Amino acid sequence: MQPAQKLLNKFSDQKTLPHVAIKVNQLTKNVNSTMKDFEEIIQLDPILVTRLLRLVNSPFYGLSERVESISKAVVFVGMQNLRNLVTVEALKDLFVDKTDETEGFSRKNLWLHCATVAILAQMIALRIFGMKSDEYFLSGIVHDIGIIVEDQVKGDLLRQVFETYDPKEKPLTQYEQDILETDHCQVGATLATNMQFPDDVIKAIKFHHNREKEFPLKSPVSVIQIAEFIAGKMNYSPIPGKVEPLSPSLAKHFKERMADYKLIVRDLPEEIAKATELYEISE
To answer: What percentage of the chain's residues is helix, strand, coil (to nearest 5)?
Structure first.
């Protein structure tokens, strides 16, 4: 059995994976799914129902009449936004379940990092590459989910990784391999596969620390790498002060579009406010 799967098995013994999120992902991938199918799943989770109705009746949608039924709310929000809403709600439980304010790494910082990367990824995809897809946001919000598994199962060893980690020397994943015999990219990709996330999202999780392989600029992998770099430079990092450099090709692209990326950084606070209203991602 692979080390990543071993960690996941131990994690599953301690945690119940969010079955609603798994089912919603299954429905999203099925072209024959109907809004009624989504409604039947959502209504099983009272907290999610409350969040959905609060969302659809918020100023973000600006509806003239209040929506009280789950079926109408699902129609207004749409399948892709619904999938992201369910995923965010499920992940918040995993991220905030264990409060850890030790110096260096904390789950709160990791959550803020993932949320920022998700928002930046969506902005980069649209503004730089003209790609409007919710999979960029989804890729960002789940890209470091493997760290949660490592923290839950082998927290002491994970902190040893963070203490020795120097991004100028080698990627974080290599430190993890040395100490944990696996890394959060492999663990996260395995978990995302089990939860039936889209293939592009799984690739983004698996390769977002891979600077040696060339990926298409518009791919979620490249976009997440750029978003992580910007988030790190803005101090939205799970490990303060430690930012891995971009690959040569991405660094060249970033320099060529520097003016556009500066505008993205300028507008980030406003987009964070919008995402907070839409998904309640703030701490």
So the answer is: 70, 0, 30
* Residue 69 exposed, middle or buried by CB count within 10 Å (0-12, 13-18, 19+): exposed
Q: Are 83 and 25 in contact (CB under 8 A)?
A: yes
Section 116-128 average pLDDT: 96
> Picking from 28-32, 126-130, 241-245, which range would have the lowest pLDDT averaged per residue?
28-32
Q: What's the CA gap between 47 and 66, in Å, rounded? A: 19
Q: What is the CATH number of domain 3-279?
A: 1.10.3210.10
List the domain boundaries for the chain.
Answer: 3-279
Output phi, psi for 78, to 5 deg: 90, 155
The H or E element containing residue 6 is helix 3-14
Residues contacting residue 192 through CB under 8 Å, at least 6 positions apart: 142, 145, 201, 202, 205
> Of how many residues is the chain composed?
283
The answer to whether the CB of 229 falls within 8 A of the CB of 243 is yes
